[in-house]
Amino acid sequence: RFPFSRQYRRSGGQDGDTGAAATRSTDPRQTLPLEFSGRDYVYVVNVSVGTPPQDLQLSLSVSDAESWVGDADTFDWGYGAFSPNESSTFVRSGRDSFSIMHIDGNYGGGDLIRDTMWVGGAALPNLTMGLVDRGNLAMGMLALGFNDSYSGVPNVPDLMVSEGLVESPAF
Q: Are 71 and 38 in contact (CB under 8 A)?
């Protein structure tokens, strides 16, 4: 069971896109604007990464295949970030080996790493993910998409199956 919450997305980008302004009213007859792209809201998952666990909030993506966390030395927009030096289970798989680019122009880059991620109290040991130290993304991501990752390693759903946490990567 994932600990989800829906939160207003804070802009962390440098691209000048602050999103649509949300207006609040006490009038129950107020209607939503015709365009609803979801760019103002994001589903957030509370996770921990490393040993000992470091608490983070990650956006949930069902379309991306590779999860990533922000590097605490260079990247923390208020959702928590990961400090590799404080984890005894941290392994750097490759320098400058991770990048992500979204259709809206948001991007991030850094290193591929492996460490334990805790989601809803369940451990995902040796999860390969990105450690982002540059870009304009506002928060890390828990990726639940099909395993078509460029790194060719098991993603979160695949690792959950192999650890016996779920029977199938389908949701």
A: no
